[in-house]
Design goal:
- With 215 residues, this protein is an alpha+beta fold.
- It has a single domain, classed as 2-Layer Sandwich (Muramoyl-pentapeptide Carboxypeptidase, domain 2).
- It contains five helices and seven strands; from the N terminus they run αβαββαβαβαββ.
- Strands 2-4-5-7-6 form a five-stranded mixed β-sheet, covered by helices on one side. Strands 1-3 form a two-stranded antiparallel ribbon.
- The radius of gyration is 17 Å and the shape is globular.
Length: 215
């Protein structure tokens, strides 16, 4: 609806909603430091996303420690099936959620979180992910593209190929076994069971932890 370059300054200057109650201490962990076999394809650090422009300055993925450890267990369990996890997004600073909302037409708002309420991504307890084939290293076919705003993205969508639905349901099975639940409009989006225990976060990636050195 409006260019990201126009929305960014106001989003950075805005303040997340104030929430009553007590919350657990934030402990965001970088997923690849726990398991380097987890692949990253952080779309919001590239132009390959629904807004067509980078939103993150770094291609990194963080989750609250219990959620991160659960994702690692899923990744290791899937290896027995010949698959690994590929992460598209995890913790998301609140200002990015505000940009998403302000840039998205009202009739597509079910695909983005309301910044007045905050996203479970903002709490470090939501992850967008898919499967990759351990033999080829490539992402598997799914019923829809990532961030596709159509019925094909619904986790119960009955169309597409049998193979793609099988892979989608396999991912869901292993994620649910570790305390995640799938979002009703997106097969790739999973919320961790304790998301209500964490406050909305707005810290930028570069302020969380140093970039891991190579080697």
């Amino acid at each position: 609806m409006r260019p990201v370059a126009e929305l960014l300054p106001s989003a950075l200057a805005a303040t997340p909603p104030t929430e009553p109650g007590e919350f657990r201490k934030t402990d965001l962990v970088e997923l690849v430091t726990l398991d380097p076999t987890i692949k990253l394809d952080i779309r919001y650090a590239t132009t390959r996303n629904f807004l067509g422009t980078p939103l993150y300055s770094q291609a990194r993925a963080f989750l609250q420690r219990p959620a991160a450890e659960a994702v690692v267990r899923v990744n290791r369990a899937l290896a027995k099936e010949g698959y690994g996890l590929m992460i598209h997004d995890a913790y998301r600073p609140w200002y990015v959620t505000k940009i998403f909302w302000d840039a998205t037409p009202a009739d597509k708002h079910q695909f983005v979180a309301d910044p007045a309420k905050g996203s479970r991504h903002n709490r470090g307890c939501a992850v967008d992910l898919t499967l990759y084939d351990l033999r080829t290293g490539k992402a598997v076919e799914m019923p829809s593209l990532y961030d596709e705003m159509s019925e094909r993205a619904y986790p119960g969508y009955a169309g597409g190929s049998d193979t793609s639905r099988t892979k989608r349901d396999l991912l869901r099975h292993y994620m649910e076994a570790e305390g995640f639940s799938v979002y009703e409009y997106e097969w790739w989006h999973f919320d961790y069971r304790d998301w209500k225990s964490y406050a909305i976060g707005n810290v930028r990636f570069e302020d969380i932890a140093p970039v891991r050195s190579a080697g």
